[in-house]
Amino acid sequence: MPLPAPAVDAGRSSASTITSGMETGSHELTISGYSGTKGLGVGKFIRISVFSIGGHSWCIRYYLDGYEKERANWTSILSEKTIFTSKVRTFTGQNLWGFEHFIERKDLESSCHLKDNSFRISCYVTVVNFNVMERSTLLFPVPPSMDLHGDLGDLLKSKIGADVKFKVGRDTFMAHQSVLTSPSSVFKAELFGFMKDIKKATQIRIEDTEASVFGVILHFIYTDSLLEIDEGDRGVMAQRLLVAADRYNLQRLKLICEDVLCKFIDINTAATTLALAEQHGCGHLKEGCFSFLKYPSNMKAVMATDGFGHMTSSCCPSLLKELLAKLSPSLFKLKLGEAREKKVVNYCFC
Question: Where is the BTB domain (predicted)?
Fold first, then answer.
């Protein structure tokens, strides 16, 4: 049975989405008349005209005599973000960033970059923009999914709307035709088929099922579960329920009973359980019995029980042949005379 969905209290939920975009641009700066810019002074700069990249405005600061005293012999180049156009921004904690030790003046003046008293600098800027989108949703309380089987169990107990009455021994059971006919084709045929005139009587009498078993059958049909059964009574009740489940064509209940009975297979029950499985077409239960009987010690002990003698005398020969086919012939090395003494039918060992 699927678990019910948890109830959700009223309230709000929120979510955030971060998206990023990247834009790269460049600006080319040409310094003509280099010698004329010398002697500007430490910390003094020339600001180059503003250019735009990635939604921001930028400019370049040219410090020919260095950004500060410690860098007086160096030419410094720094980029400056002059105008902020985005609410979310990070620029290493300040608006200025670049190369304070861009190139030492003596190296610049002796390099091939300085030609005809001029040189050129290319500045590349990549801007990564992060956009944060916030979303808030109002939540409404949703009740958990219905416990339909629990509700039907309460309906069976209350008898509200019950439209059919069963008399089982001295007990009377009230039920609902629409609930009974859904899982059981037998109930459908009896209540809406050839017995539809009988149901008009005050009650329907059940002769082939005990009241305790019929009560468990009704509970299972309504709730898809079994009533609590004492451990000591589970084996016997499982046998009776299997017969009733076969009678009313309740296949799921029948398989549940087979599973229970497989756990009770032992020396004393193996033969009777095998006969029961054969009578009611329980393939899984038969295989469980064969698995137990394949061991020579188990088979020899079971052959000494009254249940085995009853099975060989009452069951159809096909079951005995199937048993012989399933088990190794070496398991039947008992002397024929010993078998007769135990009153075992001879063809079992041929």
Answer: 162-226
| CA–CA distance, 339 with 350 (Å, rounded to integer) | 12
| Collapsed DSSP state (helix, strand, coil) of residue 304 | coil
Q: Give Cα separations from 43 to 60, 122, 125 (angstroms).
A: 14, 22, 24
Give the whole-angstrom CA distance, residue 261 versus residue 239.
7
What Cα–Cα distance (Å) separates residue 63 from each residue in 5, 34, 67, 98? 69, 12, 6, 11
Give the span between the Cα atoms of 108 and 104, in whole angstroms.
Answer: 6
* pLDDT tier, 195 (very low <50, low <70, confident <90, very high otherwise): low
Q: Enter the DSSP assignment of 29.
A: E
Q: Is the pLDDT of residue 217 over 90?
A: yes
Give the number of residues written for the chain: 350
pLDDT tens, 81-91? 544 333 334 44
Do the Cβ atoms of 30 and 120 come closer than 8 Å?
Answer: yes
- What residue spans of the chain are helical by DSSP H? 105-110, 148-158, 177-181, 185-192, 211-223, 234-247, 251-262, 270-279, 283-293, 296-303, 306-314, 317-326, 336-341
Average pLDDT over residues 318-344: 58
Q: Alpha-carbon distance 10 to 8, whole Å? A: 7
What pTM was estimated for this model as a whole?
A: 0.55
Residue with tokens 């939540």: 139
State how far the Cα of 253 lies from the Cα of 236, in Å rounded to an integer.
15
- Taking phi first (over 0 means left), then psi (-120 to 50 degrees means alpha), and beta for anything else, what does residue 43 get? left
Phi/psi of residue 7, each to 5°? Answer: -70, 145
